[in-house]
Amino acid sequence: MRHTVRVLLVTTAAGLGLAACGRTPPPAQSAPAAPEPPASTQPRDDGAAARREAEERRRAEEARRAEEARVRAVLQQMVFFDFDRSDIRPADRLGLDAKVIELRNHGDIRLQIDGHADERGSDEYNLALGMRRAISARQYLMNHGIDGSRLTTRTFGEEQPLDPRHTPAAWDQNRRAEFHIVAGLVSDR
Question: Tell me, what CATH number does 123's domain have?
């Protein structure tokens, strides 16, 4: 036991001796700390990634809606007819051709085609003429590869004029076929 006390005293005396000489004992060495990575490589959880993701979703939804509106505008473009006629006019073929493209690209879309007539003629005659016009538009689409099961027809004759006036300009607007999306895109009915 004496031996232990002496060693302790010697160590303490040596420490005191260094302090008396104006020297400080060297600091006790500890295990080196792990270096910190540079601030630029530390992950920051400030929500920026979530905001970018939300912005990308918002832009994708806007693009989807814009595309849907464009397709809807093409498909709903009306076809007009000459007086007492149901054949497709050359000027209206481009609009029908655009419909063919969209119907090919969107195989789930179904259309209802409504035929209309102006007020001249009997109710029965105008109902039949409206149906011939709807069928003519349907047949044009079918002749260009669209499955007829995706296209339904009906007639309104003179019952739903676009322009209720009794003028040649009004009659021109009322002799038409209208197209309504009934399945596929959000239907318009």
Answer: 3.30.1330.60
Rounded to two decimals, the pTM is 0.70
State how many domains the chain has: 1
Residue 141 lies in a domain: yes
- Residue 145, CA distances (Å) to 4, 100, 121 in order: 106, 8, 34
Q: Which domain holds residue 139?
A: 55-183
Q: What is the pLDDT of residues 30-71, one digit of tens each?
A: 556 666 655 555 556 678 888 999 999 999 999 999 999 999
> 79, 95 in Cβ contact below 8 A?
yes
Give the C-alpha separation, 104 to 109, whole Å.
9
The verdict on residue 139 lying in a domain is yes
Which stretches within the chain are classed as H helix? Answer: 2-20, 48-75, 90-105, 123-143, 168-174
Residue 25 DSSP SS3: coil
Give me the residue label for tokens 């009322």. Answer: 174
